[in-house]
Amino acid sequence: GVFAIETKSYEGEVGQRDGELTHNRRRVRAVAEVRREAEVVGAVIAPVPVVPIIVIHRATVGVREVGGVRVLRAGRLAEYLGGLNPVLAPAEVAELASRIDRALPRAGRP
Q1: Helix or strand or coil: residue 11?
Q2: Cα–Cα distance measured from residue 4 to residue 11, given in angstroms and rounded to the nearest whole number
Q3: In sequence order, what are the beta bridge partners of 61?
Q4: What DSSP element (H or E) covers 98?
Q5: Torsion sign (Cα): 17, 75, 37, 48
Q6: What is the DSSP string of 42-70?
């Protein structure tokens, strides 16, 4: 599959309240950010779905999913992805990557 992965480096605790991610009990916009990123990439590679994931570094993560978005500690990402069954052939991955590279600017590049 294709994933939009938003990473956050937080100290303290990550949880949820009212369907939103919280950092030290304050709401943060990570869920909205990663959903927006997934929508942008999804528009480029349609009809292939893009799954949003939030990866948290350093903080204690007390939640697995918020608003339909998976939330993982950084050390669990490889294990999580490795446990999924591949749904795209290598040639399909290359084609999607090429489409994304042509359509979306890279950070730091004009």
Answers
A1: coil
A2: 23
A3: 14
A4: helix 90-103
A5: negative
A6: HHHHTTS-EEEEEEEESSEE--SEETTEE
For residue 96, what are the CA distances in angstroms to 39, 41, 73, 83? 15, 10, 27, 22
Counting beta carbons within 10 angstroms of the beta carbon of residue 75, is it exposed (0 to 12), middle (13 to 18) or buried (19 or more)?
A: exposed
**Residue 70, phi then psi, degrees to nearest 5:** -65, 140
Summarize pLDDT for 5-26 with one digit per residue, the tens: 999 999 999 999 988 999 999 9
Give pLDDT, residue 19: 86
The first and second tokens of residue 30, run together, are: 């990570």
How far, in Å, CA of 56 to CA of 84, rounded?
Answer: 20
The Cα–Cα gap between 72 and 10 comes to 13
